[in-house]
What does this fold into?
Amino acid sequence: MERLTSEMKPGRRRKFLANQRERRRVKAMRNAFEKLRQHIHIDEAEVKLSQFDIVCRAIDVICHLRKLLELYLLLVTSPFSSSRSFLRWHMTSIALQTMSNWESFTSASSM
It folds into this structure.
């Protein structure tokens, strides 16, 4: 691999430095996608996912978590104790449905 030297012509030096910056940028992006991939549920036996697939799955996870959080906040802030039991039941059923949908999504994606 070529090294930066004081004997390089200015144009070649600029191109060399630009290439170095681009390599660092690409490496940082790869690391960011790998970190994101580790935070979403992916079966280890699954083939390598594209960056697009990783982002789509992360969006799905965030949407599911947002639904659960909204239901939880609704439960916690409800002034009616009689509705709390219904909300608990509803939140539990939504959570189970969400987990079921997520599991079927991940198993269908790995085929």
